[in-house]
Amino acid sequence: MDKVDWPLFGRKLTGWYRPDRRPMPWKGDRNPYRVWLSEIILQQTRVAQGLPYFERFVAAYPTVADLAAAPDAEVMKHWEGLGYYSRARNLLKAARKVVEQYDGRFPATYEGLLTLPGVGPYTAAAIASFAFDRQVAVLDGNVFRILARYAGDPTPIDTGPGKKHFQSLVDAALGDTPAATFNQAIMDFGALVCTPKAPQCPSCPLADRCRALAQDRVYELPVKGKSGKRRERFFHYLVLTDEAGRFLIHRREERDIWRQLYQFPLLEAPTLDLRPAALMELDEWPDWLPAAELHYEGRSTPFLHQLTHQRIGVIFHRFRWSTMGQLPAHYLRIERWELERYALPRVITRYLEESRLTLDL
DNA sequence: AAAGCGTGGCG
DNA sequence: TCGCCAAGCTT
Fold first, then answer.
1. Which residues contact A86 (CB under 8 A, 6 or more apart)?
2. Which of chain C's bases lie under 7 Å from a protein CB?
3. What single string gives the DSSP state of each residue in A119-132?
4. Which nucleotide lies closest to A346 by the C1' atom and the CA atom?
5. Rounded CA gap, A23 and A160, in Å?
6. How far is the CA of A144 from the C1' of B10 (A)?
7. Do A250 and A331 touch, CB atoms closer than 8 A?
8. CATH class of the domain at A231-357
9. A39 catalytic, yes or no?
């Protein structure tokens, strides 16, 4: 097998590249704060989905010092709906670290950037190249796919050795090409030409040297292990209101999805089909909630909430709890309108939208 | 080192 | 409908 001519790959790639083919508000921006913010938002997230969040964060927090000074709950609220909420928690940690330990300035090297929470190899390389002109290549999903196809390389991409292997390939491909341009070009190329599902091979400028295309293996590459099956879960939310129509909520703290987001009291059960009486029989039923004082007011239709590794059936059970008095620690009694001030999982905001339409709440 | 972490769009 | 996957990181 002949060795791949990586310098040629780099020349063709940068020859194809035009910044305006895929406009993004942060493209060409060299401000480390905005580069970092955009890269965190775009981790495992499509540009179209992240874009409004970027605008919102920049407007709310123009500088890293503004962000560092923000309350946790406010940042989580801004992040609401974007998913992977550890990014928001780490965003704040990193902003505070920059302010407190780095005098308000982002580290200007790949290694320095890696010390920030939420900044891994990809993000450090992106910031180092875009904001500080460091000669480092990014390795993201696009790069894996493009290189695996171009080189016809069946090395699995989701293992330690595989990542190291493709890092060496992209390093070779980068060569002396200015890294900011190369990195932007290869990611745009992956988004516009060498796409996962419907790659534009007939019009691809790299087609004449693409080994996957020559061997008709484009759709088999890159190789990755098969995804495990989804965990099934069933959530029963208790929507408890007092005589004034106030709600009971609390913040999720456990190592699980939606940490630091707010929700109604939750019972997780082995099934979705539970009547109120069966609900109260569960071991999980909270001691502080006297079943005799509750007046059942109906339940929602089931919601199916799909996550990458879980499918969650969710039902909201409405109860009137007129004597709602002393609350357990960490539970909040709030007005209906105050709900909007808390960061909520998507399934809960969807329920609230729907129940507003049906006038249930 | 593998598993866990959200949400939405697309074929 | 369903699985894949999108500018990954942490533990």
1. A118, A259
2. 3-10
3. --HHHHHHHHHHHH
4. B7
5. 33
6. 21
7. yes
8. alpha beta
9. yes
A124 touches strand C (CB under 7 A): yes
pLDDT of residue A339: 94
pLDDT tens across A277-306, in order?
Answer: 999 999 999 999 999 999 999 999 999 999
Tokens 């609900």 appear where? A279
pLDDT digits (tens, 9 = 90+) for A53-81: 999 999 999 999 999 999 999 999 999 99
Whether A84 sits with its Cβ under 7 A from any strand C atom: the answer reads yes
- Per-domain residue ranges of chain A: 6-220, 231-357
* Cα A160 to Cα A172: distance, rounded to the nearest angstrom: 19
List beta partners, residue A296: A319
Q: Which of A39, A111, A220, A293 is catalytic?
A: A39
Nearest to A146 by CA among A199, A225, A184: A199
Report, in ranges, which bases of strand B sit under 7 Å from a protein C-beta: 1-11
Angle, in degrees to the nearest 10, between helices A160-174 and A6-16: 70
- Residue A228 has a pLDDT of 78
Cβ–Cβ under 8 Å, residues A187 and A17: no
Q: What residues of chain A score a pLDDT lower than 50?
A: none
Superfamily of domain A6-220: Hypothetical protein; domain 2 (1.10.340.30)
List phi, psi (to 5°) of A305. Answer: -105, 115
From the number of C-beta atoms within 10 Å of its C-beta (0-12, 13-18, 19+), residue A153 rates as buried
**Whole-number Å distance between alpha carbons of A79 and A37:** 12
pLDDT at A110: 98
The C1' atom of B7 and the CA atom of A87 lie apart, in whole Å, by 14
Residue A224 corresponds to which tokens in the numbers above?
């990755």
Spatial separation of the C-alpha atoms in residues A180 and A159, rounded to whole Å:
27
